[in-house]
Amino acid sequence: MKILSAPMAGFTNYAYRELVRLLGGADVIETEMVSARSFVEIESRSGEFPLRLWGVRGEPNVVVQIWDNSPEMLSEFARRLAEDFAVCGIDLNFGCPAKQIANKSESGSYLLRFPDRIGDIVTRVVAASGKIPVTAKIRLGCTTDSINAIDVAQAIESAGANGIIVHGRTASDMYRGNADWNAIATIKPKLKQMKLYGNGDIKTVNDALSKMQNYPIDGIMIGRAALAKPWIFRQIAAAAANREIPSDPTDTEINQIIKLHYKLLREQLIPKSAISQLRKHVFCYAAGKGTSRQFRHAICQTNDTTTFFKLIDDFWKISET
């Protein structure tokens, strides 16, 4: 039973992936989704590549999630990822409901309307990827009146993919309501051998165990919950193996994790940019603590490293008492 770290735009860059890797427990760690068109165009123009690929080359257990609606663009990108970046896997995004992706670019969840078209894309990408495994991430359908995840899953399997990740909402749901794991479960009997991974509303270790034990899946994918608790993967891995579950970090340890995250960000970014990126994660760590509103306001007012970390030290020291 595999545990996957989900792709999340604006969050799952190299530093976050490395932090998750160091904390342990995740079998697969996905990048932010990367535009195939951007890769091809940027490289042809300048010989460079999108910033979202920073750190990917040779990175262990990393899967790059890619998106577009062009089989040609996607297969060329997949070929380069396989040959030149030596990635561990390629994941095709057919689930993103964001208007910029689904409506304007007619990619992501827009393509769920066309299982045959998805099958053609997957066929081309699998061929271009050589021995690199290919997966696809989807939603149940575009709307509750057009749920077609089984048809899409079968098209993806027939095209040669190794696995499918299903988020248990429709595109029109966005992130409202509850993920429908019963609907995810209906897909498994319709597959021959392709792996099925479930995604949606896994917020705790108990949520993860419940999904693993009660649904016919080959693994789970966790996204938003891990932004506040990137150590959740090691806790789930321990629980699934009937080992003692590591406790949540103390406030002092969270402080240390934040500083480690900053150090990782600085491998790529200047201090001001690293603080800007880290701030989003700090908001997640602080959520639900009694004085988080005042704290959030204070750290939004500074890009100075010394002031920023003084606020971090004071906040988690207060939280610990």
Summarize it.
The protein has helices at 14-23, 36-46, 71-84, 99-104, 115-129, 149-158, 181-185, 205-214, 225-228, 232-240, 251-265, 271-286, 292-300, 305-320, and strands spanning 2-5, 28-30, 34-35, 62-67, 89-94, 134-139, 163-167, 195-199, 219-222.
CATH-assigned fold name of the largest domain:
TIM Barrel
Look at the structure and give the CATH class of the largest domain.
Alpha Beta
- Let me know the number of strands: 9
| Helical proportion, percent range | 40-55%
Shape: globular
Task: Give a quick account of the main beta sheet: strands, pairing sense, barrel closure.
Answer: 8 strands, parallel, barrel
The neighbouring-strand order within the major sheet is 1-2-4-5-6-7-8-9
Question: What is the CA-atom radius of gyration, in angstroms?
Answer: 20 Å
Terminal CA distance: 39 Å
Keywords:
321 residues, alpha/beta, TIM Barrel, 8-stranded parallel beta barrel, globular
Any overview of this molecule?
It is a single chain. The chain is of the alpha/beta class and 321 residues long. It folds into two domains: 239 residues, Aldolase class I (TIM Barrel), CATH 3.20.20; 70 residues. The chain has 14 helices and nine strands. β4, α3 and β5 form a beta-alpha-beta unit.
